[in-house]
Predict the structure.
Amino acid sequence: MARLSMASTACRTVIVGVLCMAHHGTALMDDWTPADIRQFFLDHADVDISIERIVDAGLMVDDLFDNRLDHDVLEKDLGVSSVLKRKKMLEAVLNLDTRASSKPGNVFEWRYSNRRLCDFWLLPLSSAPRMLLLWLRYSDYDDNTGALEEVDNVVDAISVTDFWLIWLLVPSMPQFQLASQLDVRGFADTVIFLAATCRALLEVSTAVAVVMSGSTKLLIAPLREEFWQYVYCLVSYYLLWWLWPNIVLDLYFYGNIYIIMPVKIAFNVATFVRAVKSFRGV
């Protein structure tokens, strides 16, 4: 079957999505096997599907989300003929999605349950922090799973005056606030925390440079780039989600976490140190 045979995880790393997971759960989905999927449906929907049937269908844990699993797949590929059983299975998946989105066990689990939001919206939009901040503040996005609840709470708590000052000078500050609350436990969490911190520090140094020089070019110049980045986000979310080769993006995700982001952190730290030295006239 086409939908499930191509359903490998499609992802890049994203700071904002990961920062939604300030609280950690227990059961992790990122290492689920077909036996775990069978046990999940048996425990939560009282439906027993053989491991062989799951394997033949190519059903993986990431296929449970983003509406990939529906009545048609359950009936034709997994052999569940009962409408009532299919409804119970889909309800169990929705509950799992809500739990993994609001209280994931780790960065990878949040990603599994929010692939499209993470990979094809938040990731590209995180390169345009002012557009991201506007979207978080004024959009009516709600997927009923609590995937962005932590972020929304932080952004919505900012007063109107403070919001526009942050938007202009330090648009990544909400990300830093969330990073400071993150329960850092592993390498990926550490990378996310350091990346958010470095980004906020660089924006602070830019704001200081603007105040000292009296020139606003450093603040105005990125706005055009951010607008076009937002346009790309729309293309990414509504078109590329269906077209990108998933296995390549999966490799890119892990490359970001373990290689690209650590290198960027080192570069940003060096840039910040040079900026501090220039301020001090060294």
Q: What stands out?
A: The two ends are 64 Å apart (CA to CA). The CA atoms of residues 11 and 119 lie 5 Å apart.
